[in-house]
Design brief:
There is one protein chain. The chain has about 750 residues and is α+β, with helices and mostly antiparallel strands. Helix 11 (about 230-260) runs antiparallel to helix 30 and helix 16 (about 335-350) runs antiparallel to helix 26 (about 595-630).
Length: about 750
């Protein structure tokens, strides 16, 4: 019982950590690009990501010859069907050409009526029967017979004309035997519907194993791979898991090195138990708040590891160098600890005001973790140092001599100039692809896929509606405002337009028109030796006006997507031209191109970063002003922040490091860290006459190295966002620590 009573506080946090692990195990880790974009452009990105092709399983085959590519693609399709990975709906499979003919009334627009009138002339009928006659003696004779019986005038060509207009945005592709191919036919793509949702990681892994096994059996110089939402899910999840594993192992190793260099005490192991105690419950609570947790947020856990141990490190060194009661010693440095907790916490609070979900997740995650770390460090750990001896009393203390005032001033000015130069020459990568965590092989495959479906050559135009019917009607109204119209609106029309077309069809095929067409057809048919009864099925179809077609073009291509509950959109692939953008804006539609979206994203994230950084600075300035009550001391605490930021910008430009937009998240964190180190030096300077042993230089160095060990290991991540934060950490934190140790003390002395 005494054991349980003495360890009761620690056991409570151990139990909380266990609950956190259990909650994470049952929760959801989700990596969605929408969590990385500002709120006001989230709809555009969501629409862009929900284009019809992104919902398809795209299987691409590359071979030495067009014949081999078509053959292998067909074999792969058959095996995918056999294994149940895809569903293949061929519209003509059930009712043949009759299905197409039966759909003619629904597509009988004014333009279609004009084309039909032209096909009913004596000359046109003669030419059409000539084509049928020649086709009867080819290998496709049976198919030609069926087509001639059900469509003697070739009216279904009207539908194929409409279908052909859909592919005008990618003129380099040809359609053959169910596959799209490039100009020489050596690269072909099959588009299929898959049974699994795009976020089904289990299905994605099974599909990956299928293609891996398939690749080993293919001929030399032949490659088959898949793209689409499932591939992105697989890449994101696999790379995030790999990153988390490597970052965790390297972080533990780096922290171990810091431990060996600065602690070498069994009791000090408690310090490095902190991450185990605070990270699981922090991640679990974040998951409860948002319903899921991002892999980027979990990757940020290594950062929180470095930050969370700082409080315990400061307490440990203070206790090891004093003979007083642990609680009394902690109370002496409590002002410093509260200042550090407040300044770090306010930087994360500033992230809560961002409209980017991942920033908010990181803020909640870090605030919970730091709160728990502070509580454990102040109220739990001192109990375990109660019987510790002053092992450092006879040890030579490490003290680093700061630069003289003039040298420090010159160094600060040089850092400022270095930062100005770096800011002007900084390279920012606004590519949307940098937001996805993907492997090098995926980047190569994506490049191949984009050569077949060049997204940069076109744009997407979305007509929105609360229902599918409303979206289709809005798309038709939008089409009417464009000189060349929208091909999708002709082939995929609203119920209202379909009824109008059917009415026009019935009025067109009146008894007089039918008799006239029948007479012309029979006259030309007799010349070819066709019987009078050969076309009875077509005449029967005309007389049965109530017949509706089961034919559905959406089995090939469905431009209508459901964005959310109560929001639908019709997707049009259009040229990337100002005419379409301006028309869409006037009509309340959404026009998106890859280049435009990247520009908007870059501008939005920059504004977010500026707003968050300014907010972090203002909050910390107010907090320090209230705590320190002295203007000069408050201002001097920002020197490491300013100089460290300039050092970061200069190094990024000097080493030509292209910063992705979300590397900017590090800037508000650099503010908090820089101020923390400045506060340590301030407290040390103010107490040097009375209790300088409470603030040994080793404590600041150990805290800085621990933060670097937790933060800097992100450079080993493959995820571009995590890597960028790691690179910024190594440079930025290194700069702030150096400025705090060698430049800032000179200004304290000068102030005195």
């Amino acid at each position: 019982m005494k054991f349980l009573y003495f360890h009761r506080k620690l056991l409570c946090f151990v139990g909380l950590s266990f609950l956190g692990i259990l909650g994470l195990w049952k929760g959801t880790i989700e990596e969605n690009i929408l969590a990385l974009v500002p709120q006001h452009i989230k709809q555009q990105v969501m629409l862009f990501e929900h284009s019809p092709l992104s919902q398809k399983l795209i299987v691409i085959t590359r071979a030495n010859s067009a014949t081999q590519a078509q053959q292998v693609a067909g074999e792969v399709r058959d095996k995918l069907l056999q294994e149940g990975f895809i569903t293949l709906s061929i519209p003509l499979a059930d009712k043949g050409i009759f299905g197409l003919v039966a759909s003619l009334p629904s597509h009988f627009s004014q333009q279609a009526q004009t084309e039909t009138e032209q096909k009913l002339s004596e000359e046109a009928i003669a030419k059409q029967l000539d084509r049928y006659y020649e086709g009867l003696f080819s290998f496709q004779g049976m198919l030609v017979t069926q087509q001639m019986m059900h469509d003697p005038f070739g009216l279904t060509e009207i539908l194929f004309r409409l279908w052909g207009k859909l592919g005008q945005s990618v003129p380099s592709l040809t359609y053959q035997d169910g596959f799209l191919s490039d100009s020489d036919g050596t690269q072909v793509a099959g588009l299929y519907d898959t049974r699994a949702s795009v976020s089904d990681i289990s299905a994605a892994q099974q599909l990956q194993r299928f293609f891996s096994n398939l690749q080993s059996a293919l001929p030399e110089n032949t490659r088959v791979f898949f793209m689409g939402g499932l591939r992105y899910t697989l890449e994101n999840t696999s790379l995030i898991k790999r990153d988390l594993t490597i970052i965790t192992l390297i972080g533990i190793a780096c922290l171990g090195i810091v431990f060996i260099c600065f602690f070498r005490s069994k009791r000090a192991l408690l310090i490095y138990m902190l991450p185990i105690l605070v990270l699981p419950p922090a991640a679990w609570i974040t998951q409860l708040v948002f319903g899921h947790i991002s892999g980027i947020t979990l990757g940020f856990g290594s950062v929180v590891v470095g930050l969370s141990v700082d409080y315990a490190i400061y307490i440990y060194f203070a206790l090891q160098r004093t003979q007083t009661d642990p609680q009394e010693t902690v109370s002496k440095i409590s002002r410093h600890l509260w200042c550090n907790f407040l300044t770090s916490g306010l930087c994360f609070v500033s992230l809560l005001f961002s409209s980017i979900e991942v920033f908010k997740q990181i803020a909640v995650f870090a605030l919970v973790a730091l709160s728990l770390a502070f509580a454990i460090s102040v109220w739990v750990f001192p109990l375990y140092f109660e019987k510790s001896k002053n092992t450092y009393s006879n040890e030579k203390k490490v003290e680093l001599n700061p630069l003289p005032f003039k040298a420090a001033l010159v160094g600060l000015v040089l850092l400022l100039l270095f930062g100005v130069w770096g800011g002007k020459n900084l390279s920012i990568n606004s590519d949307l692809a940098s937001l996805n965590s993907t492997s090098a092989s995926f980047a190569q495959d994506r490049q191949t896929a984009e050569s077949l479906f060049p997204s940069t050559q076109g744009a997407l135009l979305f007509s929105l509606g609360k229902t599918e019917e409303e979206a289709l009607q809005n798309n038709e109204r939008l089409s009417a405002q464009l000189p060349s119209g929208l091909p999708v609106s002709e082939l995929f029309s609203s119920e209202f337009v379909r009824q109008q077309n059917q009415k026009r069809w019935r009025e067109f095929w009146n008894e007089e028109r039918i008799n006239q067409a029948k007479e012309l057809l029979q006259r030309e048919a007799q010349k070819k030796g066709f019987s009078e009864q050969a076309f009875d099925s077509f005449w029967t179809f005309l007389q049965d006006n109530d017949e509706t077609s089961a034919f559905d073009f959406t089995n090939w291509y469905n431009p209508v997507i459901k964005i959310s509950q109560g929001l639908y959109a019709v997707v049009n692939i259009v040229p990337n031209e100002d005419l379409y953008a301006q028309t869409a804006q006037k009509a309340g539609a959404v026009f998106i191109s890859a280049s435009m979206l990247q520009t908007q994203l870059a501008q939005s994230v920059k504004k977010e970063a500026i707003r968050v950084v300014i907010l972090a600075l203002v909050l910390n300035l107010i907090a320090l002003g209230l705590l320190l009550r002295k203007v000069k001391e408050t201002v001097l605490c920002f020197i490491p922040v300013l100089a460290g930021g300039c050092f970061l910008l200069g190094c990024l430009a000097l080493f030509h490091i292209s910063v992705n937009l979300f590397g900017l998240i590090f800037l508000p964190l650099l503010i908090g860290l820089g101020i923390d180190y400045a506060i340590f030096q301030l407290m040390k300077y103010q107490s040097k006459q009375a209790a300088a042993q409470l603030y040994p230089t080793q404590a600041l160095i150990a805290a800085g190295l621990s933060t670097l060990a937790g933060f800097g290991v992100l450079i080993f991540a493959k995820h571009a966002v995590l890597f960028m934060m790691g690179a910024c950490a190594l440079i930025g934190i290194g700069g702030t620590v150096g400025v705090s140790l060698f430049i800032l003390p000179a200004f304290w002395e000068k102030k005195a």
